[in-house]
Amino acid sequence: MTEWLTESLADKPCALIIDLGPSDYIPSEDDENDVVCAQLIVMADEVFMVRRSRVEVGHLMFADYSTEYVELDRWYLAPHFDDCTDGYLFTKDRRLAAETCVTWFRDNQGASEPDNIGCDYRYPDELLPNDDSTES
Known about the structure:
Strands 4-5-3-2-1-6 form a six-stranded antiparallel sheet, covered by helices on one side. It is about 15% helix and about 20% strand. A hairpin with a 5-residue loop joins strand 2 (about 35-40) and strand 3 (about 50-55). The radius of gyration is 16 Å and the shape is globular. The protein has one domain (about 1-25, about 35-125). Helix 1 (about 1-10) packs across helix 2 (about 95-110). It is an alpha+beta fold.
């Protein structure tokens, strides 16, 4: 699973979000149970943000994806994001990012097989189409 996730992070565009959670999870407003989730966000300069949580994570709306002022390979544990209950990390190491997610699920959900973990890719939207034929 680590290898698959490591390869999934190769050559991805800035602002890509990969959401990971239990493959059988169905969100419900009435559900008060914890759900083990992780999220990978591709930042600028080939940096990955890893977020771990025991609640469903949302999609952050960053003003930019610069990592100029973050410290790499350090866990940020302060509750800066409401939905990020168990810290976040910035790293350039794809394997470290992948291993962090895999061990999070293994240690907290007992899931170590890809079939047990659901995955959703959210690619960034383009402001304007690349096709010149749409110009007015």
